[in-house]
Amino acid sequence: MAAARGLWAGGCYRRHPLASASSSASSGSGRAAERGERPDRVGLGFRPPPHSHSDWIGPPDKHSNLRPVIFYVPPEESALERRLREARQEAQASNQRFWARHNRAFRQEKEEFIYSRLKAKGLEMRDESGQKATLSAEEMADFYKDFLSKNFKKHLQYNRDWYKHNFRITFLMGQVAVMRALRWLRGRKRNVEQ
Amino acid sequence: MSAARSCRPPRALAGLFVWRLRSTGARQIPCRFVHLYHVTSNKLITFQYFNFLKRMQLDQEKKVVHKISSASPVPQSWPEMSRRNELREMKSAAETEDSVIPGGAESKEDRQWKEMKLRPDDLPGILARLSKIKLTALVVSTASAGFAMAPVPFELTCFLLASLGTGLASCAANSINQFFEVPFDSNMNRTKNRPLVRGQISPLLAVCFAACCGIPGVALLTLGVNPLTGALGAFNIFLYTCCYTPLKRMSIANTWVGAVVGAIPPVMGWTAATGSLDAGALLLGGILYSWQFPHFNALSWGLREDYSRGGYCMMSVTHPALCRRVALRHCLALIGLSAVAPVLNITTWTFPIISLPINLYISYLGFRFYRDADRSSSRKLFFCSLWHLPLLLLVMFTCKKSVLEKEDKGELRGGSHEMAMEIRLP
Q1: pLDDT tens sequence across B339-386
Q2: Scanning every residue of chain B, which has its alpha carbon at the shortest distance from the alpha carbon of A106?
Q3: pTM for this structure?
Q4: ipTM of this complex prediction, to 2 decimal places
Q5: B186 contacts in A (CB within 8 Å)?
Q6: Alpha carbons B140 and B157: distance in angstroms, whole number
């Protein structure tokens, strides 16, 4: 079960924030058990149908706005395919971490900014009718400029990491595609010879 | 019953079997299929209503059949399977149906999970969105305008090859741009439904598509039109994908680079027609370059929150006053550039006069945007830019200085080249 969660850590951040912690410990031992099948249940997470041989992609995550992917592990997964899957899982986890944290910080700082500005104007967070008070776009512009410049270096670092992940994954996908094509051709040749 | 009879017997049997198992658990009506069953068995239905039901049922059945047939190998063999196997197969079939039991938020979310399998039917739509087909169409039309404005007789084949090559190059550039920007697109409202974000296509396929468009596109321009146009096309792809796209996250200079990217297609159209890069090409490029600023700066004014959160360095976020100043400056530049057109013998003097009202209007909106700096003035300026450009190009084309006029003025002297041109004139 914990091993199963390891495979799905990339897909279930909403429900298992601790799954990523247990995954690295258990994924190694559990990998053999996962081959050729998907585990029956991952807590409250979505379970793809057992007959399906493809990956499944879900709705955007609440915090990161990224769509989680549940990766299919074929029964005879080659080393190359495993490297590709792990690269995709790693990229997904890294992206999820970054954007969830970043968006949370944005929302928090935005609230704080609105609160401080409203206090400076002598207004409350909610007016008489109970509606949340907002600032105009022009007043928010100061916050947006400030937030962008504060996070500039963080974004530069993330860009570098993202481009590296993206190129590596695409290159591996290319290699896997070529390998599968060769395997299929070899299979056909064998059938013809027989 | 009658609705059930419209599907093939084994599948219908499967559907009923699934329904029966589920209904032993919950007392509610689980799915539309079952609802139809009840409806058709309980009331007298008209022919039209039956057809409507049939259509709904067929739509539903397509999904059910697809899922059920993939759930178990041969539906007819169910009676032979063991009880335990049957139950397991039923559970998986029930879960894969689209019409799951409503009520629990879990099943609603489960329905939002999609299989990452590319279906051939979806491919054209996906590729159209990947290549930003509407933007590509706009790019091709500006290239055609450049071709049409060139002071040479119109050649249809050259025109078509140039348009096709430009379109393919634009598709390639847009696909690579989306390939680079997946996590950022996910976080912005405007772009969160793009194919790579939704997982409808893999990054490898996106890159292959870009290569399959870009390489033939540039080759077509180089070999079918002329090497200069091919070089401009390749340069534009490079500028957009390798300069503009990364620069968007590093510096506000990206807007100026993007304006050059937008200015190159009409230059390509011109060089496709004439084979040389002369003043007329640069003027057309200049008009498109200047137009980009009121267009983009006004658009970006309403997207400041998304840009700030997404980490995009745009003038509207970092230097708002500069953003508005530049937009106004370039609106006024459009008036100046329109006045230069007759000087370069591209158009007659009627062009600056006729285009003055539209240029003055966009400049007025640019001034309002500069002064008011609010959402309504930015939207007005943006929407004006959308009709301003096609109208300006149309007026330019109608005021084009015809080659005949130049001949009458004795500007062209007799020679084999000019004789050939005379013959080809309509």
Answers
A1: 999 999 899 999 999 999 999 999 999 999 999 998 999 999 999 999
A2: B309
A3: 0.73
A4: 0.77
A5: 60, 64-67, 99
A6: 15
